[in-house]
Design brief:
It contains five helices and five strands. The protein is of the alpha/beta class.
């Protein structure tokens, strides 16, 4: 059985794209969240191995969610996935404990390769 993944993105299209790529890569999708509140609740409830986290959500910024994960000691590895690719944003995500920062658009191969380091 592959590593368990929680997908966080407000776009159903992006969640489906990520889900399909990761399932093909041998990962098990255990949950999906469309906003920050769900992202926090599901992360602690499901305890996934990996979380893919969009940085711009309707109710929160991904880096704020990362802070909660870090403060609460969540052991999951978090991969930021966002269209926001400014260095300052990427550096903030990485400094808060993200394993990697993947800028949209990306290919399925790029995504699976990035997560294979987890």
């Amino acid at each position: 059985m592959g590593k368990k993944v929680l997908i966080v993105d407000d776009s159903l299209y992006m969640r489906t794209l990520i889900k399909d790529a990761l399932e093909e890569g041998g990962y098990e999708i255990v949950g999906q969240a469309a906003n920050g509140e769900e992202a926090i609740d599901l992360a602690f409830e499901l305890q996934p191995d990996i979380i893919t986290l969009d940085n711009i959500l309707p109710d929160m910024i991904g880096t704020d969610i990362l802070k909660v994960y870090k403060d609460e000691g969540l052991p999951s590895k978090v991969y930021m996935i966002s269209a926001v690719g400014q260095n300052s944003v990427i550096e903030e995500g990485m400094s808060l404990g993200a394993e990697d920062y993947i800028v949209k658009p990306f290919t399925s191969e790029q995504l699976v390769q990035a997560l294979s380091k987890a």
